[in-house]
Design goal:
Length: 475
Amino acid sequence: MQRVDPFVPTTTLAERIRDGDVAPSDAVATYLDRISRDNDDLNAFITVTDESARRAAEQADRAVDDPEEALGPLHGVPIALKDLENPKAGVRNTLGCVPFADAVAERTATTVQRFEKAGAIVLGMTNVPELGHAAVTDNELLGPTATPFDGDRNAGGSSGGSAAAVAAGMTSAAIGSDAGGSVRIPASFCGIYGLKPSFGLVPLDTRPNAFEKSVHHDVKGPLTRTVADAAQVMDVLAGYDSTDPDSLPFEMDFLGAVNRSITDLRIGYSPDLGVFDVDPAVQSVVEDSLSALVDAGATVEEISLDHGLTADELKDAFLTTWAVHLRSITRNIEQHAEIDFSQRRDELSDSLIELLDIAADRGVDDLADTGIVRTRMFDAIQSVFEAYDLLVTPTTGTTAPDLRPTHDHWDWVARRLLTWPFNWTDHPAGTVPAGTDDESAPVGTQLVGPRFGDETVLAASAAFERERPWQYLYE
């Protein structure tokens, strides 16, 4: 076996495979070896599909040798799937939940089909909190997922397994999902790039309720070690799908956007979105990182966000919408799998039970009232883009928490994670590694674009990366 650099960018690996310099079977073997070596420590993968991955790699090898074979943009590239709404027929799909410990997917999600059509090879399913409900990754099936930087810290959630796998060089790229920060939070904690695209760009194919994800604008997005890698994944996954009622017929050049200049871009920097709690050490790292955008030619000015909302008002509204979002998910699963979660409470975590109880307690009027709070946040953010091309904030107000934190989880989410407002308002957002604090814990800087300004987010993210490369984090 030829050893492959596990941290080589996805775009570079794909090019080397197409050129015949790297065999897909060697790439797959390299990553499977690293999974075998490190997964017991990190708990990044909940299911490893090693046999099918090796078979697919052998087929990919033969395709490279066949001059008549058309190779996709990710031909032979190993990837990982979040074990939630990315089922692959015949593969275990647990949702991180005890009642589904042995469930096997009967269908393959549209996103997985697009990955495989592009030539990617699935290595397995990555760890998640139950039903993706939390901002840390832990469950009763596998346990908590740690960051590769510190085994005593949680990788974040809910795409924590995907983020940890990418950061640890256990996969070339991974897909996550983001309804409140579930791509950006673990990307920030694990020192990688994560993108929450605009709602409707990447298809969702949930059934029997096709509208399940619209409550909190849940989207699928890439987790990668470079911005260009994320753009390449987006070029593969995005595109109209008639089976998704929220799918949009937008065409974007994601990979082309990474080479665009941001000279003369006007950027507004909000240190706390007007109300969030941000640790001084995190704020210091983020503000130091802003020089990368200035060096790339942009203008950065500190701004204040005028929404007039208190932290308590935001928390109450968030808990209502998030609880309803999770109840929509559990109700959809109950209809499909013929299960009653109210009869399985002893198999669920306290934080999930708390959410389901909130959903049961709050009524239609409570949900309707959240729309007023959301609108005030939306108007405040929209007003930023009347004067600026981009909004920058800390991604989170803290670095990665303890492996099994004991703090009030929902208070921490509502007050310390600056990600979920942009699911409310449907603004695209990416997180770039800004640096590390005094304890060598990664810190993320969040770049938020105007509505459907995904290309601007990618352009600014790539410019940041060129000025302040972060690949040293993986050495």
